[in-house]
Amino acid sequence: MSTEVKESPQAPVVAxxxxxxxxxxxxxxxxxxxxxxxxxxxxxxxCSALAITVKVQNAMVMALSVLAVVxxxxxxxxxxxNLIPSRIRIIAQLVIAAGLVTLVDIVLKAYVYDVSKQxxxxxxxxxxNCILMGRYEAFAMGNKVWPSALDGLGNSLGYAWILMAxxxxxxxxxxxxxxxxxxxxxxxxGTGLYALGYMNNNLIILPPxxxxxxxxxxxVQRSRNTKLVEAA
Amino acid sequence: xxxxxIFVKAIFIENMIFAYFLGMCSYLAVSKTVKTALGLGAAxxxxxxxxxxVNYLLENYVLKEGALSWLGPQFAAxxxxxxxxxxxxxxxxxxxxxxxxxxxxxxxxxxxxLGIFLPLIAVNCSILxxxxxxxxxxxxxxxxxxxxxxxxxxxxxxxxVAIAAIREKIRYSHIPAPxxxxxxxxxxxxxxxxxxxxxxxxxx
Lengths: 232, 204
Fold this sequence. Notes:
The structure holds two protein chains of two kinds.
Chain A: H1 23-30, H2 46-51, H3 56-79, H4 89-111, H5 113-119, H6 121-124, H7 130-138, H8 145-175, E1 177-178, E2 181-182, H9 207-224
Antiparallel strand pairs in A: 1-2
Helix pairs in contact in A: 1-8, 3-4, 3-7, 3-8, 4-5, 4-7, 8-9
Chain B: H1 2-13, H2 24-29, H3 34-63, H4 84-106, H5 108-114, H6 117-121, H7 125-137, H8 142-169, H9 182-196
Helix pairs in contact in B: 1-8, 3-4, 3-7, 3-8, 4-5, 4-7, 7-8
Protein backbone atom coordinates (compact mmCIF):
# COMPACT_ATOMS: atom_id res chain seq x y z
CA MET A 1 0.00 0.00 0.00
CA SER A 2 1.46 3.33 -0.99
CA THR A 3 -0.14 5.31 1.73
CA GLU A 4 2.96 7.21 2.70
CA VAL A 5 2.03 10.83 2.96
CA LYS A 6 4.26 13.23 1.16
CA GLU A 7 5.85 15.62 3.54
CA SER A 8 5.12 19.21 2.79
CA PRO A 9 8.27 21.16 1.97
CA GLN A 10 9.71 22.29 5.24
CA ALA A 11 9.22 26.00 4.86
CA PRO A 12 10.48 27.83 7.91
CA VAL A 13 7.25 27.99 9.86
CA VAL A 14 7.63 30.71 12.41
CA ALA A 15 4.15 30.59 13.82
CA UNK A 16 3.61 28.10 16.69
CA UNK A 17 1.00 26.37 14.54
CA UNK A 18 1.80 22.72 14.09
CA UNK A 19 2.56 21.81 10.47
CA UNK A 20 -0.11 20.07 8.41
CA UNK A 21 2.03 17.00 7.89
CA UNK A 22 4.57 17.00 10.67
CA UNK A 23 6.05 13.94 12.27
CA UNK A 24 3.12 13.53 14.65
CA UNK A 25 0.59 13.77 11.86
CA UNK A 26 2.39 11.20 9.75
CA UNK A 27 2.47 8.86 12.72
CA UNK A 28 -1.30 9.19 13.04
CA UNK A 29 -1.66 7.69 9.60
CA UNK A 30 1.12 5.10 9.57
CA UNK A 31 0.61 3.71 13.07
CA UNK A 32 -2.74 2.04 12.41
CA UNK A 33 -1.35 0.35 9.30
CA UNK A 34 0.85 -1.98 11.30
CA UNK A 35 1.66 -1.46 14.98
CA UNK A 36 -1.82 -0.40 15.97
CA UNK A 37 -3.93 -1.99 13.27
CA UNK A 38 -7.65 -1.77 14.09
CA UNK A 39 -8.35 -5.36 13.06
CA UNK A 40 -5.32 -7.41 13.99
CA UNK A 41 -4.18 -5.50 17.09
CA UNK A 42 -7.10 -3.55 18.52
CA UNK A 43 -9.59 -6.27 17.43
CA UNK A 44 -12.23 -3.79 16.36
CA UNK A 45 -14.62 -3.93 13.45
CA UNK A 46 -14.23 -7.63 12.77
CA CYS A 47 -17.95 -8.16 12.33
CA SER A 48 -18.24 -6.60 8.92
CA ALA A 49 -14.66 -7.26 7.88
CA LEU A 50 -15.15 -10.98 7.49
CA ALA A 51 -18.52 -11.26 5.88
CA ILE A 52 -17.96 -9.19 2.78
CA THR A 53 -14.53 -10.46 1.78
CA VAL A 54 -15.69 -13.08 -0.73
CA LYS A 55 -15.10 -10.63 -3.57
CA VAL A 56 -12.52 -7.86 -3.86
CA GLN A 57 -15.07 -5.46 -5.27
CA ASN A 58 -17.40 -5.81 -2.29
CA ALA A 59 -14.48 -5.45 0.09
CA MET A 60 -13.38 -2.26 -1.62
CA VAL A 61 -16.86 -0.72 -1.52
CA MET A 62 -17.10 -1.64 2.16
CA ALA A 63 -13.66 -0.18 2.92
CA LEU A 64 -14.50 3.06 1.14
CA SER A 65 -17.81 3.33 3.00
CA VAL A 66 -16.08 2.85 6.33
CA LEU A 67 -13.42 5.37 5.31
CA ALA A 68 -16.05 7.98 4.52
CA VAL A 69 -18.00 7.39 7.71
CA VAL A 70 -14.96 7.34 9.98
CA UNK A 71 -13.23 10.40 8.51
CA UNK A 72 -16.33 12.59 8.23
CA UNK A 73 -17.71 11.38 11.57
CA UNK A 74 -14.39 12.01 13.28
CA UNK A 75 -14.34 15.56 11.92
CA UNK A 76 -17.95 16.27 12.90
CA UNK A 77 -17.55 14.89 16.40
CA UNK A 78 -14.26 16.64 16.88
CA UNK A 79 -15.87 19.92 15.82
CA UNK A 80 -18.73 19.36 18.25
CA UNK A 81 -16.64 17.92 21.05
CA ASN A 82 -17.12 20.86 23.37
CA LEU A 83 -20.86 20.95 22.80
CA ILE A 84 -21.67 17.28 23.43
CA PRO A 85 -22.53 16.67 27.09
CA SER A 86 -20.46 13.77 28.29
CA ARG A 87 -23.39 11.88 29.81
CA ILE A 88 -25.15 11.38 26.49
CA ARG A 89 -22.07 11.24 24.29
CA ILE A 90 -22.58 7.62 23.23
CA ILE A 91 -26.07 8.33 21.95
CA ALA A 92 -24.85 11.49 20.21
CA GLN A 93 -22.07 9.52 18.53
CA LEU A 94 -24.51 6.79 17.49
CA VAL A 95 -26.88 9.30 15.95
CA ILE A 96 -24.10 10.99 13.97
CA ALA A 97 -22.85 7.59 12.82
CA ALA A 98 -26.35 6.44 11.88
CA GLY A 99 -26.96 9.61 9.88
CA LEU A 100 -23.73 9.22 7.93
CA VAL A 101 -24.34 5.52 7.30
CA THR A 102 -27.82 6.29 5.98
CA LEU A 103 -26.23 8.71 3.52
CA VAL A 104 -23.67 6.11 2.44
CA ASP A 105 -26.41 3.50 2.03
CA ILE A 106 -28.48 5.79 -0.18
CA VAL A 107 -25.44 6.70 -2.30
CA LEU A 108 -24.53 3.01 -2.74
CA LYS A 109 -28.09 2.14 -3.75
CA ALA A 110 -28.05 4.94 -6.30
CA TYR A 111 -24.70 4.25 -7.96
CA VAL A 112 -23.66 0.63 -7.35
CA TYR A 113 -26.95 -1.16 -6.85
CA ASP A 114 -25.59 -4.69 -7.44
CA VAL A 115 -22.88 -4.34 -4.83
CA SER A 116 -25.32 -2.71 -2.44
CA LYS A 117 -27.60 -5.77 -2.76
CA GLN A 118 -24.71 -8.14 -2.05
CA UNK A 119 -23.31 -6.18 0.85
CA UNK A 120 -26.84 -5.98 2.26
CA UNK A 121 -27.21 -5.53 5.98
CA UNK A 122 -23.50 -5.05 6.50
CA UNK A 123 -23.70 -1.42 5.37
CA UNK A 124 -26.21 -0.77 8.13
CA UNK A 125 -23.93 -2.57 10.52
CA UNK A 126 -21.20 0.02 9.95
CA UNK A 127 -23.09 1.95 12.66
CA UNK A 128 -22.10 -0.59 15.27
CA ASN A 129 -18.67 -1.16 13.75
CA CYS A 130 -16.43 -0.84 16.74
CA ILE A 131 -13.77 1.09 14.79
CA LEU A 132 -16.22 3.95 14.51
CA MET A 133 -17.16 4.13 18.15
CA GLY A 134 -13.58 3.47 19.15
CA ARG A 135 -12.18 6.34 17.11
CA TYR A 136 -15.03 8.71 17.98
CA GLU A 137 -14.73 7.99 21.66
CA ALA A 138 -10.97 7.61 22.01
CA PHE A 139 -9.71 10.22 19.59
CA ALA A 140 -12.25 12.65 18.17
CA MET A 141 -13.71 13.60 21.56
CA GLY A 142 -10.33 14.91 22.68
CA ASN A 143 -8.57 16.26 19.61
CA LYS A 144 -8.79 19.00 17.02
CA VAL A 145 -10.48 18.55 13.66
CA TRP A 146 -7.41 18.04 11.46
CA PRO A 147 -5.65 15.38 13.56
CA SER A 148 -9.02 13.63 13.95
CA ALA A 149 -9.46 13.49 10.20
CA LEU A 150 -5.94 12.04 9.80
CA ASP A 151 -6.56 9.54 12.57
CA GLY A 152 -9.77 8.43 10.90
CA LEU A 153 -7.96 8.13 7.58
CA GLY A 154 -5.15 6.06 9.08
CA ASN A 155 -7.46 3.68 10.88
CA SER A 156 -9.73 3.13 7.93
CA LEU A 157 -6.69 2.48 5.71
CA GLY A 158 -5.48 -0.05 8.26
CA TYR A 159 -8.92 -1.67 8.07
CA ALA A 160 -8.92 -1.45 4.28
CA TRP A 161 -5.65 -3.26 3.67
CA ILE A 162 -6.63 -6.24 5.80
CA LEU A 163 -9.96 -6.40 3.99
CA MET A 164 -8.31 -6.24 0.59
CA ALA A 165 -5.72 -8.86 1.55
CA UNK A 166 -8.34 -11.32 2.81
CA UNK A 167 -10.61 -10.66 -0.17
CA UNK A 168 -7.75 -11.12 -2.64
CA UNK A 169 -6.85 -14.51 -1.21
CA UNK A 170 -10.45 -15.63 -1.04
CA UNK A 171 -11.42 -14.47 -4.51
CA UNK A 172 -8.33 -15.83 -6.28
CA UNK A 173 -8.39 -19.25 -4.65
CA UNK A 174 -12.15 -19.48 -4.25
CA UNK A 175 -13.41 -18.19 -7.56
CA UNK A 176 -10.26 -17.90 -9.69
CA UNK A 177 -10.92 -14.22 -10.36
CA UNK A 178 -9.73 -10.86 -9.10
CA UNK A 179 -12.07 -7.88 -9.28
CA UNK A 180 -14.23 -10.19 -11.40
CA UNK A 181 -11.48 -10.69 -13.99
CA UNK A 182 -10.61 -14.34 -14.61
CA UNK A 183 -6.90 -14.65 -13.91
CA UNK A 184 -6.45 -18.39 -13.62
CA UNK A 185 -8.19 -19.21 -16.88
CA UNK A 186 -11.79 -20.12 -17.53
CA UNK A 187 -13.15 -22.79 -15.18
CA UNK A 188 -16.01 -23.86 -17.43
CA UNK A 189 -14.06 -23.94 -20.68
CA GLY A 190 -11.13 -25.60 -18.93
CA THR A 191 -8.43 -23.20 -20.10
CA GLY A 192 -5.35 -21.89 -18.30
CA LEU A 193 -4.62 -23.60 -15.01
CA TYR A 194 -7.90 -25.50 -15.20
CA ALA A 195 -6.55 -27.41 -18.18
CA LEU A 196 -4.02 -28.97 -15.78
CA GLY A 197 -6.80 -30.24 -13.54
CA TYR A 198 -6.79 -27.31 -11.10
CA MET A 199 -10.08 -26.69 -9.32
CA ASN A 200 -11.46 -23.78 -7.36
CA ASN A 201 -11.52 -24.41 -3.64
CA ASN A 202 -15.13 -23.99 -2.58
CA LEU A 203 -14.24 -24.12 1.11
CA ILE A 204 -12.58 -20.74 0.80
CA ILE A 205 -15.79 -19.02 -0.23
CA LEU A 206 -17.59 -20.30 2.88
CA PRO A 207 -17.67 -18.04 5.97
CA PRO A 208 -15.35 -20.08 8.27
CA UNK A 209 -12.36 -19.63 6.01
CA UNK A 210 -12.46 -15.85 6.42
CA UNK A 211 -11.68 -16.41 10.09
CA UNK A 212 -8.81 -18.77 9.35
CA UNK A 213 -7.47 -16.27 6.83
CA UNK A 214 -7.45 -13.41 9.34
CA UNK A 215 -5.88 -15.76 11.88
CA UNK A 216 -3.05 -16.45 9.46
CA UNK A 217 -2.55 -12.74 8.73
CA UNK A 218 -2.26 -12.15 12.48
CA UNK A 219 0.25 -15.00 12.72
CA VAL A 220 2.42 -13.58 9.94
CA GLN A 221 2.19 -10.03 11.25
CA ARG A 222 3.11 -10.99 14.80
CA SER A 223 5.99 -13.19 13.81
CA ARG A 224 7.49 -10.23 11.94
CA ASN A 225 6.60 -7.68 14.59
CA THR A 226 7.41 -9.51 17.80
CA LYS A 227 6.44 -6.71 20.15
CA LEU A 228 2.79 -7.50 19.39
CA VAL A 229 3.01 -11.07 20.71
CA GLU A 230 0.64 -11.62 23.62
CA ALA A 231 2.05 -12.81 26.92
CA ALA A 232 1.27 -16.41 27.71
CA UNK B 1 -44.06 -25.82 13.85
CA UNK B 2 -42.90 -22.91 11.79
CA UNK B 3 -41.87 -21.11 14.97
CA UNK B 4 -39.75 -24.05 16.13
CA UNK B 5 -38.24 -24.24 12.69
CA ILE B 6 -37.24 -20.57 12.71
CA PHE B 7 -35.85 -20.99 16.22
CA VAL B 8 -33.67 -23.99 15.38
CA LYS B 9 -32.53 -22.44 12.12
CA ALA B 10 -31.48 -19.25 13.93
CA ILE B 11 -29.45 -21.21 16.48
CA PHE B 12 -27.61 -23.68 14.29
CA ILE B 13 -27.74 -22.88 10.59
CA GLU B 14 -27.84 -19.11 10.57
CA ASN B 15 -25.75 -18.74 13.69
CA MET B 16 -24.91 -15.10 14.34
CA ILE B 17 -21.22 -15.83 14.88
CA PHE B 18 -20.38 -18.67 12.55
CA ALA B 19 -22.47 -17.70 9.55
CA TYR B 20 -22.65 -13.90 9.79
CA PHE B 21 -19.79 -12.86 12.10
CA LEU B 22 -22.06 -10.55 14.08
CA GLY B 23 -21.00 -9.46 17.53
CA MET B 24 -17.48 -10.64 16.81
CA CYS B 25 -15.77 -7.84 18.73
CA SER B 26 -17.29 -8.66 22.09
CA TYR B 27 -17.12 -12.36 21.26
CA LEU B 28 -13.34 -12.11 20.99
CA ALA B 29 -12.86 -9.67 23.83
CA VAL B 30 -15.03 -11.28 26.51
CA SER B 31 -14.39 -14.97 25.85
CA LYS B 32 -11.38 -15.43 28.12
CA THR B 33 -13.32 -17.15 30.91
CA VAL B 34 -16.56 -19.12 30.89
CA LYS B 35 -18.09 -17.12 33.73
CA THR B 36 -18.03 -13.75 31.98
CA ALA B 37 -19.03 -15.40 28.72
CA LEU B 38 -22.16 -16.78 30.41
CA GLY B 39 -23.06 -13.29 31.66
CA LEU B 40 -22.64 -11.60 28.31
CA GLY B 41 -24.40 -14.43 26.47
CA ALA B 42 -27.42 -14.20 28.77
CA ALA B 43 -27.55 -10.43 28.33
CA UNK B 44 -27.49 -10.80 24.53
CA UNK B 45 -30.38 -13.32 24.54
CA UNK B 46 -32.37 -10.97 26.74
CA UNK B 47 -31.73 -7.77 24.79
CA UNK B 48 -32.27 -9.43 21.38
CA UNK B 49 -35.52 -10.93 22.65
CA UNK B 50 -36.75 -7.49 23.68
CA UNK B 51 -35.45 -5.22 20.93
CA UNK B 52 -36.31 -7.26 17.84
CA UNK B 53 -40.07 -7.45 18.54
CA VAL B 54 -40.13 -3.72 19.32
CA ASN B 55 -38.28 -2.95 16.11
CA TYR B 56 -40.66 -5.29 14.29
CA LEU B 57 -43.62 -3.21 15.44
CA LEU B 58 -41.78 -0.02 14.51
CA GLU B 59 -40.95 -1.37 11.06
CA ASN B 60 -44.46 -2.60 10.30
CA TYR B 61 -46.52 0.21 11.77
CA VAL B 62 -44.31 3.25 11.17
CA LEU B 63 -41.42 2.82 8.75
CA LYS B 64 -42.42 0.47 5.93
CA GLU B 65 -44.05 1.79 2.78
CA GLY B 66 -47.77 1.97 3.48
CA ALA B 67 -47.23 1.13 7.14
CA LEU B 68 -48.77 4.40 8.26
CA SER B 69 -52.10 3.66 6.58
CA TRP B 70 -53.67 3.03 9.98
CA LEU B 71 -53.47 6.80 10.49
CA GLY B 72 -55.70 7.43 7.50
CA PRO B 73 -55.76 6.76 3.75
CA GLN B 74 -53.69 9.86 2.93
CA PHE B 75 -50.66 8.30 4.67
CA ALA B 76 -50.75 5.09 2.62
CA ALA B 77 -48.01 6.25 0.24
CA UNK B 78 -45.56 7.40 2.92
CA UNK B 79 -42.30 5.45 2.93
CA UNK B 80 -40.02 6.18 5.87
CA UNK B 81 -37.74 3.20 5.46
CA UNK B 82 -34.72 5.45 4.86
CA UNK B 83 -34.98 6.33 8.55
CA UNK B 84 -34.73 2.73 9.66
CA UNK B 85 -31.02 2.76 10.66
CA UNK B 86 -31.44 5.78 12.92
CA UNK B 87 -34.72 4.49 14.39
CA UNK B 88 -33.40 0.99 15.03
CA UNK B 89 -30.21 2.13 16.74
CA UNK B 90 -32.16 4.67 18.79
CA UNK B 91 -34.59 1.97 19.90
CA UNK B 92 -31.72 -0.36 20.78
CA UNK B 93 -29.88 2.29 22.77
CA UNK B 94 -33.03 3.40 24.57
CA UNK B 95 -34.17 -0.13 25.43
CA UNK B 96 -30.74 -1.10 26.69
CA UNK B 97 -30.79 1.95 28.95
CA UNK B 98 -34.32 1.12 30.11
CA UNK B 99 -33.58 -2.56 30.68
CA UNK B 100 -30.56 -1.57 32.71
CA UNK B 101 -32.64 0.64 34.98
CA UNK B 102 -35.43 -1.93 35.38
CA UNK B 103 -33.03 -4.76 36.14
CA UNK B 104 -31.15 -2.60 38.62
CA UNK B 105 -34.39 -1.75 40.46
CA UNK B 106 -36.16 -5.11 40.49
CA UNK B 107 -33.44 -7.74 40.19
CA UNK B 108 -30.27 -6.45 41.81
CA UNK B 109 -28.72 -9.94 41.79
CA UNK B 110 -29.12 -10.22 38.02
CA UNK B 111 -27.84 -6.66 37.67
CA UNK B 112 -24.75 -7.61 39.60
CA UNK B 113 -24.23 -10.60 37.33
CA LEU B 114 -24.76 -8.77 34.03
CA GLY B 115 -23.11 -5.63 35.38
CA ILE B 116 -20.94 -3.87 32.85
CA PHE B 117 -22.16 -6.02 29.96
CA LEU B 118 -25.53 -4.38 29.58
CA PRO B 119 -24.34 -0.96 28.38
CA LEU B 120 -21.75 -2.63 26.13
CA ILE B 121 -24.51 -4.41 24.32
CA ALA B 122 -25.91 -1.24 22.76
CA VAL B 123 -23.01 -1.28 20.33
CA ASN B 124 -22.94 -5.04 19.82
CA CYS B 125 -23.39 -5.71 16.12
CA SER B 126 -25.57 -8.75 16.74
CA ILE B 127 -28.35 -6.65 18.26
CA LEU B 128 -28.60 -4.21 15.37
CA UNK B 129 -27.93 -7.13 13.02
CA UNK B 130 -30.95 -8.93 14.46
CA UNK B 131 -33.14 -5.91 13.67
CA UNK B 132 -31.74 -5.56 10.15
CA UNK B 133 -32.15 -9.27 9.34
CA UNK B 134 -35.69 -9.07 10.68
CA UNK B 135 -36.31 -6.19 8.27
CA UNK B 136 -34.68 -7.99 5.34
CA UNK B 137 -36.44 -11.31 5.84
CA UNK B 138 -39.95 -9.90 6.25
CA UNK B 139 -41.26 -12.17 9.02
CA UNK B 140 -45.01 -12.45 8.73
CA UNK B 141 -45.95 -11.86 12.37
CA UNK B 142 -44.45 -10.79 15.65
CA UNK B 143 -44.26 -14.35 17.01
CA UNK B 144 -41.95 -15.37 14.18
CA UNK B 145 -39.78 -12.30 14.71
CA UNK B 146 -39.52 -13.05 18.43
CA UNK B 147 -38.69 -16.68 17.81
CA UNK B 148 -35.95 -15.61 15.38
CA UNK B 149 -34.61 -13.09 17.91
CA UNK B 150 -34.45 -15.52 20.83
CA UNK B 151 -32.99 -18.22 18.58
CA UNK B 152 -30.23 -15.90 17.39
CA UNK B 153 -29.50 -14.94 20.97
CA UNK B 154 -29.25 -18.58 22.02
CA UNK B 155 -26.96 -19.27 19.07
CA UNK B 156 -24.69 -16.42 20.10
CA UNK B 157 -24.74 -17.61 23.72
CA UNK B 158 -23.77 -21.11 22.61
CA UNK B 159 -20.91 -19.81 20.49
CA UNK B 160 -19.37 -17.56 23.13
CA VAL B 161 -19.65 -20.14 25.92
CA ALA B 162 -18.11 -22.81 23.69
CA ILE B 163 -15.15 -20.67 22.64
CA ALA B 164 -14.60 -19.52 26.24
CA ALA B 165 -14.48 -23.14 27.38
CA ILE B 166 -12.01 -23.99 24.63
CA ARG B 167 -9.84 -20.99 25.46
CA GLU B 168 -9.74 -22.05 29.11
CA LYS B 169 -8.67 -25.53 28.02
CA ILE B 170 -5.91 -24.41 25.65
CA ARG B 171 -4.31 -22.11 28.18
CA TYR B 172 -1.65 -24.73 28.86
CA SER B 173 -1.22 -25.88 25.28
CA HIS B 174 1.97 -25.13 23.44
CA ILE B 175 0.91 -22.65 20.79
CA PRO B 176 3.46 -20.83 18.59
CA ALA B 177 4.09 -17.46 20.25
CA PRO B 178 2.85 -15.20 17.43
CA UNK B 179 -0.38 -17.16 17.23
CA UNK B 180 -1.09 -16.98 20.93
CA UNK B 181 -4.29 -15.30 22.05
CA UNK B 182 -6.06 -13.63 19.18
CA UNK B 183 -4.71 -15.63 16.26
CA UNK B 184 -5.57 -19.06 17.60
CA UNK B 185 -9.03 -17.83 18.63
CA UNK B 186 -9.74 -16.82 15.05
CA UNK B 187 -8.63 -20.17 13.70
CA UNK B 188 -10.59 -22.05 16.37
CA UNK B 189 -13.70 -20.08 15.51
CA UNK B 190 -13.19 -20.97 11.86
CA UNK B 191 -12.96 -24.66 12.74
CA UNK B 192 -16.08 -24.41 14.91
CA UNK B 193 -17.82 -22.72 12.00
CA UNK B 194 -16.92 -25.64 9.75
CA UNK B 195 -18.36 -28.00 12.36
CA UNK B 196 -21.55 -25.97 12.54
CA UNK B 197 -21.92 -26.23 8.78
CA UNK B 198 -22.84 -29.85 9.34
CA UNK B 199 -26.23 -28.58 10.52
CA UNK B 200 -26.95 -27.08 7.12
CA UNK B 201 -30.26 -28.17 5.68
CA UNK B 202 -31.79 -29.36 8.96
CA UNK B 203 -35.53 -28.89 8.98
CA UNK B 204 -38.02 -29.83 11.66
